Amino acid sequence: MGQALALRVTAATNLTAQAVAAAGLLELASHRFAKLIYDVHNLTTRAIARFLVTGQGTTETERNFLKRLGVTAATHGLSVVTLTRSYLLWRDTNLRVLNEEAARLGTAPAVAEEARMIIRSSADTGILRIAGAYDDQMHLVPVEDATPIALHNSRPHLNGRAHAEAEVVWVVRSLA
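Given the sequence above, the corresponding structure tokens read:
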């Protein structure tokens, strides 16, 4: 299963990118940020394939690369909901590719289910890792620097605390 998935990393990553685009998740994101998401999806699919073949988990360098997505998203005002939806699309696409390969190879149902559980677990862990880095970054941003981010998002927040729109307007006026 792992070798079959490894042969389809690029296809799985492209399918995920198409799903992300179809969902409109990156319409306001820069090309650089969209590429980072693409690269994270590619890395995580390769890591799953490697794990299925060798049992080797992600390296510290790979985990730090994943965290960079959360930091970059927070810095550029992308919502954590968008990040989560993107990762869920990655999960669903990889499950679909894995199911196709399991059917093609005639993989035993128990083995295929084990591989699916690994993808789901990886998605859960990845979401938590990225969201944690996002949250950590939001707590580092001074309130003045967070104001443009708060005004950009549909759910304004400053330093990780939710605010009503009226309070955001008050903050902006007080900074002027």
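Confidence is low (pLDDT under 50) at residues 143-174. Try to locate this feature in the token string yourself.
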